[in-house]
Design a protein that fits this description.
6-stranded mixed sheet; alpha/beta; 358 residues; binds guanosine-5'-triphosphate; binds magnesium ion
């Protein structure tokens, strides 16, 4: 299951534009009426470095799924409010706020104000969550009447969420112990999802942001969430260019070393504590996404459940050793090919060869 991110924000903030630069799709920007879905390859130069020594038939990066929904608006009136179900099962939210002036792009609230816009969107998520929480409380209270002890604890926890949401705070900051989170696992609260903010700025503010993005960053400083500055408009124009050389030249002109989407994907990995490991052979050099802390059999299971079930051992090379020594053979000779068992915790950049038997 690849990492899945949902893109949210008020109408006209640039969600579809950002989605297009990320996915290479050409979804029509401007008042969105449907959800767009696409997958984004995770940029990782290491794949190409490994392949220099392997010359495999293909290179397969790992991917992130993105869902772009139409804009949310006050009082449930935005088209996007009907699409919230589409982002129920995402792992993280990318909240885009409009930080550019453009008289040609109308703003639903009549003026550019990212701090206010964020509050509008947050409120819509919290209202939706409050409905889910209240429904679940009713369900649990029926079970309590039937003498279910665990339901009693569940109802207490849900009441904490209810009060928290009623005081206009997101579920993710509710004062609840990690072990009590299981009581909300089945209702997929939107405001419980980890969030990244993207300030969508004008072209000339692509590198250092502008007054809007600074004010916005200051307003969310207490959340300790990552705030990225991306000029989605110009970046989507650049992403649409055919030639890679042109794309690089235009990015450099804008003062950018790499596409904002790369930063976005890295930030999402960081936010969710994700890592990458590699497999490398003549057929393909491939990157795989895992959670930090996964053991070798669990990582093998990401490739195929058979590999987890029949896991025997894993041969592990560190990326840096492989690049320095240039082959599996040389790594073996240098004592840099480790044979690891079931308890080995996979590290970012490991090149794994899973031995299994089913
Ligand atoms: N000037 C400028 N225009 C932009 C920028 N990003 C997006 N736009 C324009 O703003 C308009 C709205 O952008 P979209 O990406 O469709 O916005 P959205 O958030 O998807 O809007 P909804 O789908 O209605 O919620 C389009 O005409 C874009 O071309 C930007 O960075 N600068
Ligand atoms: Mg849109």
């Amino acid at each position: 299951m690849p990492l899945k991110c949902g893109i949210i924000g008020v109408s006209g903030s640039g969600k579809t534009t950002l989605f297009n630069c990320a996915s290479g799709h050409r979804a029509e920007p401007g008042a969105g009426v449907r959800a767009n879905m696409g997958s984004v390859t995770v940029p990782d130069k290491r794949l190409y470095e490994i392949d220099k020594f392997i010359r495999s038939a293909k290179i397969v990066p790992t991917t992130v799924e993105m869902v772009d929904i139409p804009g949310l608006a006050k009082g449930g009136t935005g088209i996007g409010n009907q699409f919230l179900a589409e982002i129920r099962n995402v792992d993280a939210l990318i909240h885009v706020v409009r930080c550019f002036d453009d008289p040609m792009v109308p703003h639903p609230e009549g003026s550019v104000d990212p701090v206010r816009d964020k509050e509008i969107v947050d409120l819509e998520l919290q209202i939706r969550d409050l409905e889910s929480v209240e429904k679940k409380i009713q369900r649990l209270e029926r079970q309590v009447k039937n003498g279910d002890k665990d339901a009693k604890r569940g109802a207490e926890v849900l009441h904490i969420y209810k009060e928290h949401l009623e005081s206009l705070k997101p579920a993710r900051t509710a004062p609840v112990h990690a072990e009590d989170k299981k009581y909300i696992a089945d209702i997929f609260l939107l405001s419980d999802k980890p969030v990244l903010y993207v300030c969508n700025v004008d072209e000339k503010s692509a590198v250092s942001g502008n007054d809007y993005s600074s004010r916005f960053a200051a307003s969310v400083a207490g959340e300790r969430a990552e705030v990225l500055v991306i000029a989605a408009g110009i970046e989507s124009d650049i992403a649409a260019l055919e030639s890679a050389e042109d794309r690089e030249a235009f990015l450099a002109d804008a003062g950018l070393g790499e596409p904002g989407v790369n930063r976005l994907v890295r930030a999402a990995y960081h936010l969710l504590d994700l890592q990458v490991f590699f497999t490398a052979g003549p057929k393909e050099v491939r990157a795989w996404t895992i959670n930090r802390g996964m053991t070798a059999p669990q990582a093998a299971g990401v490739i195929h459940s058979d590999l987890e079930r029949g896991f025997i051992r894993s041969e592990v090379m560190k990326y840096d050793d492989f690049i320095r020594l240039g082959s599996e053979h040389a790594c073996r000779d240098a004592g840099k090919l480790m044979v690891e068992g079931k308890n080995y915790v996979v590290q970012d950049g490991d090149i794994l060869h899973i031995r299994f038997n089913v």
